[in-house]
Amino acid sequence: MNKMHSEIVEYQKLIKNTDAKIDALREQATEKATKIEELRAQLLRYEECSLQSVFFTPMKTATDNEIKKLSDLILILNERIDNERHKYEELDITHRKTKEKKRKLERKVALVEDELKILKDSKRTSRASKTAIQKEQTFDGFPSTAASLGKKHSSIAAIAVRATETVSDETPSEGYDLLDKDELKYKLELAEEKLKILEDKLKMIEEEKQDDYNHLVDMIQTSKQLFNEALTVLKRDKCQCMS
């Protein structure tokens, strides 16, 4: 009887231990099930992140490429702007020199015209004096004395010499007398044509700069739009892979 009682006690202990093991296994099974659900949820998040990466990566790559192109373009444009600035400064200096040359040529033309007018007046005065002397000789009965005739010829020569000296004294010392009026007008026309060419070139450079600026603005706007679209996607579908 004692033996049976001992066996019953042993069986009860064994059953209790078995129940404890079963409870422990159930608890472990519950924990494993919870872990499996967490892993499934994490797997879903990874799949979502993969889908986001599929859509976002090309957009990010395009934006990076656009930013690189813009950076390269900005460097090129800065270099071109420096070159154009130097060209503009050189053209401006040439433009000023051409204007100054034009003013000098205009002054030369005016001086030559004045000199021609003075020369014509001097020749007219000389011819009038000579005609008056000839008329005087005719009215006086043509005196036969050589001294009188020589004196009159000396007077005519003196008048001519004085007229020549007057023209020579009033001629500028810068060599204007060597320049013909037609030659000066020709040089003036050349200067005006050169001035017009320089003005057209300046206008063309300004138009090219405006075109480059408009192109740069368009590229910047496109890059901003791509970047804002990518940022919107990230804010709307924020990746939770590391949660």
Give the fraction of residues assigned to helices. over 70%
Strand content: under 5%
Total domain units: 1
Total strands = 0
Distance between the termini: 64 Å
Radius of gyration, CA atoms, in whole angstroms: 55 Å
What's the shape? Answer: rod-shaped
* Structural class based on helices, strands and sheet pairing: mainly alpha
Contiguous uncertain segments of 5+ residues: 141-177, 239-243
**In sequence order, what are the helices and strands, one letter per element?**
HHH
Q: pLDDT average, as an integer?
A: 70
How many distinct helices?
3
Major sheet characteristics: none
Overview of the structural elements:
The chain is mainly alpha-helical and 243 residues long. It has one domain. It is built from three helices and no strands. Helix 1 (2-139) packs antiparallel against helix 2 (146-170) and helix 1 packs antiparallel against helix 3 (181-236). The chain is rod-shaped. The two termini are 64 Å apart. Keywords: Coiled coil. Residues 8-42, 67-122, 181-215 form a coiled coil.
Overview in brief:
With 243 residues, the protein is mainly alpha-helical. It has helices at 2-139, 146-170, 181-236.
List the helices and strands and how they pair.
Layout: H1 2-139, H2 146-170, H3 181-236
Descriptive labels:
mainly alpha, 90% helix, 0% strand, 243 residues, disordered C terminus
